[in-house]
## 1
Amino acid sequence: MAQHPVFGADGDPDRTSATPPSPPGDGGADDLSGALREVLTLTQLARTTLAERLGMPLTNVEAVEHVVMASSAGAPIGPAELARRLGVTSAAGTQSVNRLVAEGHLSRTSHPSDGRRQVLDATPSGLGHVMGELAPLLALLHRAADGLGERERAGAIHYLANVAAAYRAYLDGDQDDATS
């Protein structure tokens, strides 16, 4: 089993320690920020590991993730929007979509109201392939909330909602509006 470093108290991934960071509430003003940085770093490492286990490039895993999330939200996306979300050219996005369709991970259909456009969806086999590897992590993450009281859950939800708002504000270029 691979060992992953525990980051230093300041969240610096280059400074590892033998003990986990102090639990929140030990008085450090940066406890939450440090814990969040560690989670974000480990999330990226987990995504890379997921891609390796699936035998897929990370960009393709991210593509499937974007398609699934958009479809789940009731707003399916097409190849051009997928390319934008991946930060690649439309030609590179089309190439990824073609590869994922050929491999059976995605399907491409006509947009329900605009037949000139296409929408993407994960195929049952593509979704099964990804979820087969992702399900154990999702189960571990679900168990991470075990034992939290209602006030702790409410505090965690409030903090994560503020973090999400900060990311949205940054993406929109409006850093002054992050937690208002």
## 2
Amino acid sequence: MAETNGGVTRDEFDRQLTETEPLVHWPAVIRALFFVQRGDWQRAHDIVEHTDSRSIRWLHAHLHRWEGDHGNAAYWYRRADRPVSSVSLDDERALLRDTLLPAADGPPR
């Protein structure tokens, strides 16, 4: 899934979280993740609703799980070829972050 991160590193992402907007050149999935991390469901959903990739579908599933629409979430997990998540929302956000953003010292997990 890391193919969609546009070379954004975890450190760069974390530094940007102090700002109100993601960098405009970031790929859609990373911009959406930015809004997820900042707790802005609507702005994240606005991005994933108009973009498609396997990573976007996973993030889309997470968003619907977050809002409590488990049927819609299950649909998006299927589209992302992922099992419906059973971990906490915080743990899934951490997994999304770790999967989509490489650590400074190596490739993404």
